[in-house]
Specification:
The structure is a homodimer of 322-residue chains. Chain A is an alpha/beta fold. In chain A, 24% of the residues lie in helices and 25% in strands. In chain A, α9 links the parallel β16 and β17. In chain A, α3 packs across α5. The two termini of chain A are 34 Å apart. The interface between A and B is medium-sized, with 18 and 18 residues.
Chain lengths: 322, 322
């Protein structure tokens, strides 16, 4: 098992790189854009293949590394289903799992800091984002923050984990690297409230200045990288509605890049081929029968829709490598 | 097992708090003066008793917390036998062990960054001080630093540990928290030399500015706290030579506070009582037979001498509590 906690001193952000073995698949949580070179160097040095990059929520204090990591490694980018960030290719919800070779994170929806805040449980470790910090909790005064929701996330979800569960937050500013659920129950001053109303009162009166990076980070994190727009401008992207209309055409193959679990949860696209990303690179190898001519788009990458009212999948056409 | 890595962002120092169990004895490595309150808060919260505070070497970039921790917890302060810091109560050398309840650090003498640089091996973890950093090594251009000695410490001692041994250094400035011996062998650019002469050439041409804190930290760390001088001024301290002259007097009891291993290594003081510190607090409880009157010093705390040519023990008289 490989577990690395990495620190960005500029934003006080902790990033986590995990894998089940050297030579195997890896997953990164809360990467910071300016540190992407270091992450990728470490991934190479540890002989890993980065297949998933996960944010616990849309950060306001640093620009996420999700876009750069996706562009440089073709990893899947993962956030909660509430996210407004574009180009997140896997949207998860309470009860889902985020799997890579040899390990699985259990997805806990823990809103409050933002409405897209998630925590990820990995055995006896929980990655708590900005929901539960070491001797603190994430502020709730912007980005649809809600102290009432956060109280519920804390007291009715995270603090119900076993006391010995190790708490790995997205930030620390005081020099701590880890805590436990038991410690936070006992010693976190924000959790010393007697009622939800007392917590709401406490959080509504913190009077904190906005994060320095907020005006830069939030818009940047809504557009995780720039390539989606570039692809659209080239006419290679299309909406789910447009894609549905293409079904059955002999010159179009719809390839569903989602994982098995996503298809089971959100539904199979009739007539589509299934080639879970990133394994599709092997399926679409030069000698494979599905290879298209450069002028005829052969695949559609699909992600689940952000809300129940939208069509169940969105597509963008892409030329496959080779 | 309790293991906490704590970070001082001002100096980029990692401090380690370790213990075998909640409620048991704890040991701290490379504490920073300004963080002592936080360490002690954590010690209380984890229900620990701090019994030893250890520095890997005399630091030039921050003031050690050893003095403050000793004053506030009565812990034993530990450094290598070469140290010039006063008031270090246990001096260790290659092959020694630093023991607390339920765990032992094996002492490795790894000079080069300074002539008093030590590493401490704890099972599959090694605390390398400034000798081996993550993808770096400690500079060798002051405080009796010696690149030739450091090469030997690295290549003939630390890098001979098993590849999977986790490396926990005293500093990191780039956001890493841990590495392994195997990784450092492969990827540490300072270790990519073909000979000791090449390493010496490399280290002698780094042309680094002195640490900002050096002029403050080095003198401060030579005097670990102020209480030794204060005790001497009150006439409560005496030299080993003076103490030897007092042996046999009916109004003086010499109490040897060293651990069993120290007595075995450095020799027993004839006629002394043995009450290993900090357990002597129990032995000298108010009801105990050894209790003295406030005006008649009843005990002498002893530490081993810094060199073979000095008398084998030094004493200072102290009034015992109670």
């Amino acid at each position: 098992m490989i577990f690395r906690q990495l620190f960005d001193s500029t934003s006080g952000t902790y990033t986590y790189l995990i894998a089940s073995r050297h030579g195997g698949e890896a997953l990164i949580i809360d990467p910071v854009l300016e540190r992407v070179d270091r992450y990728l160097q470490l991934v190479r040095e540890l002989d890993l293949k980065l297949v998933k990059a996960v944010d616990t929520h849309l950060h306001a204090d640093h620009v996420t590394g999700l876009g750069a990591l996706r562009d440089r490694t073709h990893c899947i980018t993962v956030m909660g289903e509430q996210t407004h960030a574009d180009v997140v290719s896997m949207r998860v919800a309470e009860g889902d799992g985020i799997e890579i070779e040899g390990l699985r994170l259990d997805v806990l929806y823990t809103p409050g800091h933002t409405d897209d805040s998630y925590s990820y449980l990995w055995g006896d470790r929980v990655f708590t984002g900005d929901t539960l910090l070491i001797r603190g909790t994430g502020r709730t005064d912007f980005q649809n923050g809600d102290p009432r929701a956060q109280y519920e996330s804390l007291f009715n979800k995270l603090l119900k984990l076993p006391d010995e569960t190790m708490v790995y937050p997205a930030h620390d500013y005081k020099g701590d690297t880890v805590s436990t659920i038991g410690e936070e129950k006992q010693f976190n001053p924000r959790l010393k409230v007697k009622s939800i109303d007392e917590y709401v009162e406490l959080m509504n009166n913190l009077n904190l200045p906005n994060p320095k990076m907020m005006d830069v980070a939030v818009p940047a994190n809504m557009h995780v990288g720039l390539y989606q727009d570039a692809i659209a401008k080239k006419g290679w992207a299309l909406s789910a509605t447009d894609a549905i209309a293409l079904r059955g055409r002999s010159d179009v193959a719809i390839v569903d890049l989602r994982e098995k679990g996503e298809r089971e949860k959100h539904g199979v696209i009739p007539g589509s081929l299934h080639a879970p990303y990133p394994r599709c690179r092997n399926i679409f190898a030069p000698a494979a029968c599905c290879r298209s001519s450069p002028r005829r788009p052969a695949s559609a990458s699909c992600s689940t829709a952000p809300s129940a009212s939208a069509p169940p999948w969105r597509c963008r056409r892409r030329r496959m490598p080779g």
